[in-house]
Amino acid sequence: MGISDDERSAFTHRVPDLGALELLLAVVRLGSVGRAAAETGVTQPAASARIRSMERQIGVALLERSPRGSRPTEAGALVAEWAQQVLDAARALDAGVAALRGRRDARLRVAASFTVAEYLMPGWLVAFHRARPGTAVTLRTANSAAVAGQVRTGEADLGFVEGVRTPAGLSGTVVARDRLVVVVAPAHPWARRRTGLAPEELAGTPLILREEGSGTREVLDRALASFGGTAPPLLQLGSTTALKAAAASGAGPVVVSELAAADELAGGRLVAVHVRDLDLGRPLRAVWPSGPRPGGPARELLALTRGR
Questions:
Q1: Same domain, 240 and 151
Q2: Is the dihedral of CA 48, 49, 52, 58 positive or negative?
Q3: What does pTM read for this prediction?
Q4: Which residues contact 18 (CB under 8 A, 6 or more apart)?
Q5: Domain membership flag for residue 182
Q6: Which domain does 147 fall in, by range?
Q7: Which end of the chain is more exposed for a tag (fewer CB within 10 A), N or C?
Q8: How far is residue 124's CA from residue 111's CA, in Å, rounded to a whole number?
Q9: Are residues 82 and 113 in the same domain?
């Protein structure tokens, strides 16, 4: 049950703060305002003034003062007993909050798109482990739409997505840039094209594509929208590895991340096909629930990604 504004105002005016209660308990225990002041790290005049202010606030005398020291009045003894309960509760709250913070800071849940997870995340996580060896990291991979959903629902503390914009309901920052490339097997007719493809030809050709909801598909669909849109796919596959294998087998052209195709292109197993006058660049973003940048381990991983 909540408290009303009137009750909250009364608490503010009648209930001393924790520091004042701690000082009162020290006086009762030590029998001297001077010794209590020294223990709590304030001057004796400041301690005396704080006790008097507390007495005015409560409306009763709390201490009987004499040349031999100070001892609690009957009311003061009762207030001291209650003050001890308040301080014990405050310490329990502080310990509980610290435990929650420690539990939160001991784990990091990350969700990443397939390209980021396979080609960028390993290096980032190695650096993160060096910086925070005691933090357990779990990594889930999915397409960009699914990653965004996991971050929105709190299943992931930090997400990494591909695509032309930050997903709705999330905040984000660009951490890297990538480019899509059209690749084919060396025996494919496009591998021998010297002038490259026109965007209209690419748009009109059935391709082997990632599923809708993937960052790769989103960027390609948007890039080809003004050229008639993407033709119905020859095949839809759920992973970059499957796309590359299909291209290498001669099944047809595919569009994949340049990061993902680097080894196959360098080894001659795939050939990149130039597409004239078509921007297939894309940002790779870190995303988190809408609002300020995340704290704790998520902030540290975010800093590492942007520093590499």
A1: yes
A2: negative
A3: 0.62
A4: 86, 87, 90
A5: yes
A6: 108-301
A7: N
A8: 13
A9: no
Considering 71, 88, 103, which residue would you say is the last residue of a domain? 103
The two structure tokens encoding residue 4: 């009303």
- State pLDDT tens for residues 81-127: 888 888 878 877 776 665 556 555 578 999 999 889 988 999 999 99
Same domain, 166 and 212: yes
* Locus of tokens 């005396």: 48
DSSP letters spanning 201-244: HHHTS--EEEPTTSHHHHHHHHHHGGGT-PPPPSEEESSHHHHH
Cα–Cα nearest to 241, from 117, 88, 82, 85: 117
Contact 79, 42 (CB under 8 A): no
CATH number where 42 lies: 1.10.10.10
Work out whether the CA dihedral 7, 12, 15, 17 comes out positive or negative: positive
CB 147 within 8 A of CB 160: yes
Identify whether 293 is part of a domain.
yes
Lookup: tokens for 147:
């990653």
Q: How many domains does the chain have?
A: 2
What's the distance, CA 302 to chain centroid?
A: 8
